[in-house]
Amino acid sequence: MNTSPAPTQERLETRIRQVQEATRGISEQYPRSYIRQCIDQDRFPEEMWKALGEYGLLGLSVPEHFGGSGGGVVEIVALAEALALGGVPTLFLVVTGLGRVPIVRHGTPEQIKKFVTPTCDGSVKLCFAITEPNAGTNSFNMNSLATRDGDDWVLNGQKVFISGARDADIMLVIARTQKPSEVKHRTDGMSLFVVDMKTPGITLQQLNIQVETAERQYMVFFDNVRLPADALIGEAGKGAKLMFEGLNSERLLAAAAALGIGDYALGKAVAYAQDRKPFGKPIGSYQALQHRMALAKAELEAARLMTYSAAERFDAGEDAGAHANMAKLLASRAAVAAVEAAIQTHGGYAFDRDYDVVTLWPMVRLMEIAPINNEMLMNYIGEHVLGLPKSY
C-alpha cells in the first residue's frame, strides 16, 4: 500500500514547512518574553516587525513584481500560525493580510506600489476598519459616509475595535458612498478607501480591552477627512464584494493564529504534566488530563486541515467563503479547548502570570467572537451550505 502523500499535498506541506522554518528564526530571536515586555510597556513590537520585513516574510502573498515575496494566502496563513506557535502572535499581521487583498486584486498598479509595496518591508503599516458602534456584525448598516467634493472625497463617521490604529501609517476603511435609503440592495453603495493616518480630522480613542496583545484597540473618529481621488480602491459603490474577499483571508489568518496559540498552550500543558508529580508519578498519566489534551490535539489538527484546504481554495481562485468560515469556527473552538486544557493541567499555577498560561486565554476566547462571532459563522453554514432558511 502506497502511503506517500499525493503530489498536491506534498507541495502544500513544502510551502508550509518553508515558511515555518523561516519564521522559527524570528520567534527564537524575539521570543514570548519579548512580546510580553511589549504588552507591559504598551508598545508595538517594532523590532520583530522590522525583522519580519527583512526576512521577506511580510511580503508573503504579495507578487514579486510589486516588491513582495510571492506565494499566496497559504504562505501568510502559515506565517500567522508559526508566529503564534512560537508564542508571539500578532493581530497586526491579520489586519495587514486582509487589508492588502482587495488592493492587490482591484487596485491600480500605482495604488499597489503606493499602498502595498511599502508594507512588505515593514516601513509602512496597514490596518483595517469596518466595524461601527451601532452596526456591529451588520456591516451593511454602517453610517460612515464618504461624499464627493470635486475629485476628492470627504469622509465622516466612526469605527470601533480597530486593532493597531495608533501604530498604523495607513488604514483601509470601508464606508458608504450612498446611504442605505438610496440603494436598492444593502450591498450597494459601499466603497473602500485607503486613508493616510496623518490626515487632519482623524481622532483615536483607546478602548480598555483586556486582551494580552501588543496591539491595542481603538475607536476611530473621522471628521471631514479629505481623501484624494486615488484613495478609492476599485469602483465607487461596488466595494462589498472586495470587502468579503479580504474578510475571507482575515478569517483564515485568525484561524491560523488560533491554531498556533492552541498548540503553544498544549505544549506548555504537556511539559508541565510530564514534570508535575504530586502523588509520585506524572499527572500526565492520569486519563482525566491526558484525554482532555489528546482531544484538544485531535481537534486542532482537524481544524488545521480545514484551514489550509480553505487557503488553497482561495489561492486557486475558487469560492472559499464556506471553507474559510468553517476553518475559523473550528480553529477558534479547538484553541479555546487547548488553552482550557492547559489551565486545568496547571491547576492553581495557571493563574500565576509568571507561568504565562492564563495570559493566553483572553486572546483565544476573543477569537470565538472576532473578527466575526461563531454564531454568525454557523448561520452562514446553515443557510449557504445546508440550504436552511435564513435565521436572522
Task: Walk me through the structure.
Pfam families: Acyl-CoA_dh_1, Acyl-CoA_dh_M, Acyl-CoA_dh_N. Its EC number is 1.-.-.-. GO terms for molecular function: oxidoreductase activity. This is Acyl-CoA dehydrogenase family protein. Belongs to the acyl-CoA dehydrogenase family. The protein has about 400 residues and is α+β, with helices and mostly antiparallel strands. The chain folds into three domains: about 120 residues, Orthogonal Bundle (Butyryl-Coa Dehydrogenase, subunit A, domain 1); about 110 residues, Butyryl-CoA Dehydrogenase, subunit A, domain 2, CATH 2.40.110; about 140 residues, Butyryl-CoA Dehydrogenase, subunit A, domain 3 (Up-down Bundle). About 50% of the residues lie in helices and about 15% in strands. The chain contains eleven helices and eight strands. The strands form two sheets. The chain has a four-stranded mixed sheet, covered by helices on one side. The model has no long low-confidence stretch (mean pLDDT about 95).
Instruction: Kindly give the count of domains.
Output: 3
Percent in helix? 40-55%
Mean pLDDT: 94
Rg, rounded, reads: 21 Å
Number of DSSP strands?
Answer: 8
Largest sheet: 4 strands, mixed
CATH classification, class level of the largest domain: Mainly Alpha
Shape: globular
Write the CATH architecture name of the largest domain: Up-down Bundle
CATH topology of the largest domain: Butyryl-CoA Dehydrogenase, subunit A, domain 3
What key phrases describe this protein's structure?
4-stranded antiparallel beta sheet, Butyryl-Coa Dehydrogenase, subunit A, domain 1, 8 strands, alpha+beta, globular, 3 domains, 392 residues, 48% helix, 4-stranded mixed beta sheet, Butyryl-CoA Dehydrogenase, subunit A, domain 3
